[in-house]
Structure formats: C-alpha cells, structure tokens
Design goal:
By secondary structure, the protein is α/β, with parallel strands linked by helices. The chain folds into two domains: 11-122 and 305-333, Medium-chain alcohol dehydrogenases, catalytic domain (Quinone Oxidoreductase, Chain A, domain 1), CATH 3.90.180.10; 136-275, NAD(P)-binding Rossmann-like Domain (Rossmann fold). The protein has nine helices and 15 strands. It has helices at residues 51-58, 128-151, 168-179, 194-200, 232-240, 264-269, 283-296, 299-304, 314-322; strands at residues 11-18, 23-30, 40-48, 74-82, 92-96, 111-114, 120-121, 160-162, 184-188, 204-207, 223-228, 242-250, 272-275, 306-309, 329-333. Strands 3, 4, 5, 6, 7, 14 and 15 form a seven-stranded mixed β-sheet that branches. α3 (168-179) links the parallel β8 (160-162) and β9. α1 crosses α9 (314-322), α2 (128-151) crosses α3 and α2 crosses α7. The two termini are 23 Å apart. The structure holds NADPH dihydro-nicotinamide-adenine-dinucleotide phosphate (NDP). NADPH dihydro-nicotinamide-adenine-dinucleotide phosphate is lined by residues 50-52, 136-137, 140, 163-170, 188-190, 208, 212, 229-230, 234, 251-255, 276-279, 321, 324, 326.
Length: 336
C-alpha cells in the first residue's frame, strides 16, 4: 500500500557536510529532497548511539563517505509509504547497517527513505523503543552468541569471556549469555561497574588491564568461548587463553585494528576465530538474530542496561562513547 510521504513538510535532522578541513555536523531543517533513494519511507521513532556513530559524528574516522548525509547507523519506526512488496504503511520496522549512516542517510532525523531490502519487521514482542535499546550493538552481540553456538560451545564447557563488557555490545552479550545458562566472565576497564555487570548476569568481573600488555603465544587454557569487542593486545591475549578446540567471536576494534598474535593458538590448540559483521549480514541472518533477541534477551535487563539520551545531546555523547564513558545502551527518541 502506498501513502504520500507524511509531510511533504520539512523535518528535523542532523546533517554532516564536508569542509576543506574536515566535516561539520548540524541539527537543521531538512526537506523531502534530502531523503535518499529508496522504496520505503519511514517515520523514525527511535535511534541510538553506537561506537561507529561516535566516529561518524566527530569525524574521527572516515565513517561518513557521502555528503551531505544524515548520520545514525540504525533506527526503528513506522513505514509511511512503501513501493516494496514486503512492506506496507503502518509496518513497524528496524534497520541496522547496510551502509546507512555511512553512505546513505540514517536514523538521526524524523524521516528516512531506504531500500526495503534492508529492513526487518520488528518481532511482535519488541517495540520500537526496545529495538533501539538493543540497536546495532545488541544485534551484533546476538550474532556473536550465534557464532559461538554454531561452533558447538555449550554452557557445560566452561566460562565464556566477554571483553569491553560495560559497553553496548558487551553489556547485551553478558545479558544474553547469562540468560542462556552460560557462566560469563566480564572484563572491564571500569571496575566501578562491577555491580552493574553482576546485575546483568556476569558470574565474575575482572580488570581489562591484564589483557592490554603484549600477549604470550600461549597461556593457561581458561575460556570455553569468548566475545571480543576490542581487537589489539586484548584479542591476542584472549586467543592465547582459549581452551583446546574453542572459539572466539570478534566484532570490534575498541582497542585497536591490529592483531599482534601468532599462529600458535590456531595450530596448537585448534582455536577458531569467527569474524562477526553486522553491516552486510544477510536478511535471513538478521531475522534470525532479531527473533532470537525476542526470545533470549530479558527485557527487564535490557531496560536496566539502557538509558535515554536526548536527541540534542548526540554531539557530546559521540565524544563520550569514543572516550569509553558510555555505559550500556543509549536510546535516542526522535522528537515528533
Ligand atoms: P562501546 O563504546 O559502547 O563499548 C566499547 C567498550 O570497549 C568500552 O565501553 C570499554 O569497555 C571497552 N574498551 C574501550 N577501550 C578499550 C581498550 N583500549 N582496550 C580494551 N577495551 C576497551 O562500543 P560498542 O559496544 O557499540 O562497540 C564495540 C566495538 O564493536 C566497537 O569497536 C564497534 O566499532 C564494534 N562493532 C562492530 C560491529 C560489527 O558489525 N562488526 C557492530 C557493532 C559494533 P570497558 O570500559 O567495560 O572495558
């Protein structure tokens, strides 16, 4: 069913423009002409702040590669107009990645227009606000859990390590794994968050400092599985501590893009390193992840690990997330 864009009227949104010295980001009035190509138009209700959004908003890394562009790598909302066979006006949808907020305008505006091929219908038990409490970080956490499960990692195999546990991916990973019956050891640079991490279901919280030095080729076998958001020395140390035949799901580079390790954990302990990408994951995998989130993420815990972030405060919060000062998941209500 097709409906005219609710508002041919203008709408509010952030826009990033390229300048000679870098980029500018301002909250301004946008028009229908600022919407990008696509067959589905959405009234955006919620977005969130992911690490990548921090990079995009501050320009610290060349995440935004098309200008002008509305940032925000994910959003949830209601379809207002669709020429795509899979969607009709009124559908509640969620979008994660597919270059949105990087090369296609994203969630930090009241309206968005995207390809229907990128959208997932929200599961009935997840509303638009919860979808962004989960956000790309939480959906990626679920992809990481699914990678460990597909490897055959079971609760009885031993402790699962989660790095960067106070952050978005880490917090949701701890909550999901504990609900699934795994014993979770959380590493953090913020021991002040120990009680918070225990309340999400961690059985133990350890300092991340022990993971930041140069790794030995092999160390004691400690972990039956691991989810890593940090890369760098952290991931190298994690690999050296994995049990024989176990697996690590790596999705992030909060410490570094480098991986200063050796082949020892792979050829002497049969470790598998799974790379997890959420941006270009297939629609089937996304649907599976979202329905698993509906089933395996405790919505009360989700509420506990998320907080409301004012739409106007996004530029400062972008700096904070890069400084590792954001705990859990930020929910950004798009003003109506
Ligand atoms: P957050 O900023 O919310 O969390 C990252 C956490 O990493 C921090 O909270 C901190 O946790 C920890 N950390 C920060 N600096 C370091 C360091 N130098 N060494 C070790 N740990 C560190 O980000 P997100 O959870 O949103 O994202 C985490 C990572 O995953 C990012 O690199 C992001 O780009 C990536 N990502 C990748 C996706 C994909 O598709 N592959 C999708 C989503 C995210 P603590 O204080 O508890 O130690």
């Amino acid at each position: 069913m097709s409906q005219s864009l609710q508002g041919d009227q203008n709408f509010q949104g952030y826009q990033i423009n390229k300048t000679e010295t870098g980029q500018t980001c301002e909250l301004k009035e946008l028009s229908k002409n600022d919407l990008m190509e696509g067959d589905v138009t959405i009234k955006v209700e919620y977005s969130t702040l992911n690490y990548k959004d921090g990079l995009a908003l501050t320009g610290k890394s060349p995440v935004v590669r098309k200008f002008p562009l509305t940032p925000g790598i994910d959003f949830s909302g209601t379809v207002t107009n669709s020429d795509h066979t899979g969607f009709e006006a009124g559908d509640k949808v969620v979008l994660n990645g597919f270059g949105v907020g990087e090369v296609h305008s994203g969630g930090y505006a009241q309206m968005a227009r995207v390809s229907g091929d990128w959208l997932v219908k929200l599961p009935s038990k997840i509303d638009a606000r919860q979808a962004m409490a989960i956000g790309t970080a939480g959906y990626t956490a679920m992809l990481c859990v699914m990678a460990l499960e597909q490897h055959g990692v079971k609760p009885a195999d031993g402790n699962i390590l989660v790095t960067g546990a106070s952050g978005g991916v880490g917090s949701v990973a701890v909550a999901i794994l504990s609900k699934l019956g795994y014993s979770v050891v959380a590493t953090t640079g913020r021991m002040a968050e120990k009680d918070y991490l225990m309340s999400l279901g961690a059985s133990e919280v350890i300092e991340r400092q022990g993971f930041s030095e140069k790794a030995r080729a092999l160390y004691k076998e400690l972990w039956a599985g691991a989810i890593d958001v940090a890369g760098g020395n952290t991931l190298a140390n994690v690999l050296s501590q994995m049990k024989y035949g176990s697996a690590v799901a790596a999705c992030g580079l909060a410490e570094s893009m480098n991986l200063p390790t050796s082949v020892a954990p792979f050829i002497l302990r049969g470790i598998t390193l799974y790379g997890v990408d959420s941006v270009m994951a297939s629609i089937e995998k996304r649907q599976q992840a979202w329905s698993r989130l509906e089933r395996d993420l405790d919505m009360d815990l989700l509420e506990r690990l998320s907080f409301d972030l004012d739409f106007n405060d996004l530029p400062q919060a972008a700096i904070d997330i890069l400084d590792g000062k954001i705990r859990g998941r930020a929910i950004v209500k798009i003003p109506t």
